[in-house]
Design goal:
It is built from three helices and no strands. The protein is mainly α and 61 residues long. Helix 1 packs antiparallel against helix 2.
């Protein structure tokens, strides 16, 4: 997954720019990716993940 994401943002940026001829729309498409990623990351249960991995839970997460 890591290798695909290195070019996926650039591809979307280019495709949106070609479709709309607007850099504003292309940047907005990238902002949508960041917002969706932030929402997904906010749903991660850090403490449970640390426990499931078999590690000691630190005092500050």
């Amino acid at each position: 997954m890591e290798r695909g994401t290195s070019w996926f943002g650039t591809l979307i940026f280019g495709l949106v720019y070609q479709a709309t001829l607007s850099y504003r729309s292309a940047i907005l498409a990238l902002i949508v990716f960041f917002v969706v990623g932030g929402v997904l990351l906010s749903r991660v249960k850090m403490r449970q993940g640390i426990i499931d991995a078999g590690n000691e839970v630190p005092h500050v997460i």
